[in-house]
Design goal:
Elements (H helix, E strand, L loop, with lengths): L6 E9 L2 E5 L5 E5 L3 H10 L5 E6 L10 E3 L2 E6 L3 H20 L10 H21 E10 L6 H8 L4 E5 L7 H4 L5 H8 L4 E4 L2 H15 L2 E3 L2 E3 L5 E6 L6 H8 L2 H13 L5 E8 L6 H14 L7 E8 L6 H21 L7 E4 L5 H10 L2 E4 L8 H9 L5 E5 L4 H5 L4 E3 L4 H13 L2 H17 L2 H14 L7
Parallel strand pairs: 1-4, 1-7, 4-6, 7-8, 8-9, 9-12, 13-14, 13-16, 14-15, 16-17, 17-18
Antiparallel strand pairs: 2-3, 5-6, 10-11, 11-12
Helix pairs in contact: 2-3, 3-4, 6-7, 8-13, 9-12, 10-11, 10-15, 12-13
Bound molecules: adenosine-5'-diphosphate (ADP) and 6-O-phosphono-alpha-D-glucopyranose.
Adenosine-5'-diphosphate binds next to helix 1, strand 13, strand 14 and helix 13.
Enzyme class: transferase
Keywords: Glycosyltransferase, Transferase
Organism: Allobranchiibius huperziae
Length: 472
């Protein structure tokens, strides 16, 4: 049955901003969903009139009824247990995710997964078609929903369709491995405008269209051959920097940050890593570098401490289990070998925290270690420079989208090169205060001048500016 309500602005992402969790007694609790997509889109959607967010509510089974949370209208999509395994864990996170992140771990392909991916994309498309008002704006998000744009176009030729990829888009030589690659490209070409984190991602997509679909590509526009076009360009995402800045400067957060430092024994240098526990994030490389710096005596555990927050993620997938084992073993080893009584060399926390606590950690840290092997953007880097003390320092991997905007002013590293990573960490720790202050001033300005509202404005303006499509 179509939903009786329709909306002028409909977004669809695999996840809703909150997960509903039902306990054994049937009590439902709501918790914030993990990841940067939610951080960014929550700020864009909160309080927006005539808007709905379609997504999975975090539990398998029948979809719960639409509900309101935090000034957003949320419409759950149901996933069966099999679809969770095949569409979400399988095709999305065991085929596409590793392939789009430079195959840091091998990508796995199963025919059953692809069928489930198509079925779930169709379910999203149908729900979008039911909820969109005439000529509405539809904004589809991320790699889990790459077929949905063309499916929506088929059902509702009147609406404007945009899609944004929160993760990298791989070079065609890697993308070509994906079963059904042409269908996926045609799925995306159902949109009027496709947004990517970096120009390199948009270029990879355009190259894949040229090579695999043999369509004409002029500049950043794909000509489908029937008079229709799709534009693909970079629109780098950001955070709600003014809101985050205000929170970081509130008395409560300042006091909490001071307390955190005190609880850690007031170290001379507090290093911080904040990541989902994902093999793309370079956590193992970071720990290796830190462990060696302690072992060599370059860093003294009496002066320096590392706080590593590792949010639980995709815990049933083997690659994530293996990583968790490796990370926890290394943390244990470093602490066993180097921690003085009562002040661990690494404080490791494998859980989620309220927003204020995360911001207090950013305020407290002297150096943030953001060392992914590949990352679409990495919002943690932007959050850190917005919150930290004026003399904070950011160690940033060249393989993040954030490095495009934040290269000047951060301590850039290649996390694969442990020797140079160690040097970069030391450079950040030892840089003269004056240098750190001027670098941080620059970084903060970049993020405050380019917040998530501006990003959404750019994306929607590009979508609006896309040419009208001729009727099919
Ligand atoms: P990804 O989307 O790959 O997880 P990002 O760095 O872009 O990576 O975004 C992660 C977001 O999740 C940030 O807003 C960060 O502050 C938040 N976050 C990370 N770990 C936690 C945690 N343990 N508790 C709460 N929020 C977290
Ligand atoms: C990244 C992806 C999001 C995803 C998030 C959390 O940010 O771009 O699409 O929601 O990770 O991952 P999960 O698999 O838990 O949704």
């Amino acid at each position: 049955m179509p939903d009786p309500k329709t909306f002028d602005f409909v977004i669809a992402a695999n996840r809703l901003p909150v997960d509903q969790n039902t306990d054994d007694e049937g009590n439902v609790t709501i918790s914030r969903s993990p990841g940067g997509l939610v951080t960014a889109m929550e700020s864009v959607m909160r309080g927006r009139e005539g808007a709905a967010w379609i997504g999975w509510a975090g539990e398998t089974g029948e979809a719960p009824e639409p509900f309101e949370d935090n000034d957003m209208y949320l419409v759950p999509i149901g996933l069966s247990d099999d679809e969770h395994v095949d569409y979400y864990e399988g095709f999305s996170n065991d085929s596409i995710w590793p392939l789009y992140h430079d195959v840091i771990v091998p990508a796995t392909f199963k025919r059953r997964w692809r069928t489930a991916y198509e079925r779930v994309n169709q379910r999203f498309a149908q729900k979008i078609a039911d909820l969109a008002a005439p000529e509405a704006t539809v904004w589809v998000h991320d790699y889990q929903l790459q077929l949905a744009p063309a499916m929506v176009r088929e059902l509702r030729p009147d609406v404007r369709i945009g899609w944004f990829n929160h993760i990298p888009f791989p070079p065609v030589e890697l993308f070509m491995q994906l079963p059904g690659r042409e269908d996926l490209l045609w799925g995306l070409l159902g949109a009027d405008f496709l947004g990517f984190q970096r120009s390199a991602d948009a270029e990879n997509f355009l190259r894949a269209c040229r090579r695999l679909l043999h369509v004409r590509v002029r500049g950043d526009v794909v000509h489908h051959g029937d008079g229709r076009t799709t534009r693909a360009a970079a629109v780098p995402i950001s955070i709600d920097s003014h809101d985050v800045y205000a929170l970081a400067h509130s008395d409560a957060v300042r006091e909490r940050a001071a307390q955190i430092r005190k609880d850690l024994g007031n170290p001379k240098k507090l290093l911080l890593g904040v990541d989902r526990l994902d093999y793309t994030k370079g956590i193992r490389h970071r720990l290796k570098a830190y462990g060696e710096l302690l072992a060599e005596g370059t860093l003294d555990p009496a002066d320096v401490t590392l706080v590593q927050v590792a949010t639980p993620s995709r815990e049933r997938l083997q690659a994530y289990r293996t990583l968790r084992g490796q990370v926890e073993q290394t943390v244990g080893q470093i602490n066993g070998e180097h921690s003085p009584i009562g002040s661990p060399a690494v404080t490791y926390m494998h859980r989620s925290f309220p927003r204020e606590e995360m911001i207090a950690l950013f305020v407290a840290a002297d150096v943030a270690l953001v060392t992914p092997l590949r990352d679409g953007m990495n919002l943690v880097a932007k959050e850190y420079v917005t919150c930290c003390a004026d003399d904070g320092a950011l160690v940033l991997s060249e393989f993040t989208g954030a490095a495009t905007e934040l290269a000047r002013g951060s301590f850039l590293c290649n996390p694969h090169d442990i020797r140079s990573l160690k040097k970069t960490i030391m450079a950040a720790i030892e840089a003269p205060e004056k240098e750190r202050r001027s670098q941080m001033r620059r970084l903060r300005k970049v993020v405050l001048d380019n917040d998530v509202q501006k990003w959404a404005g750019h994306f929607l303006a590009a979508l609006e500016a896309a040419p009208e499509r001729p009727a099919s």
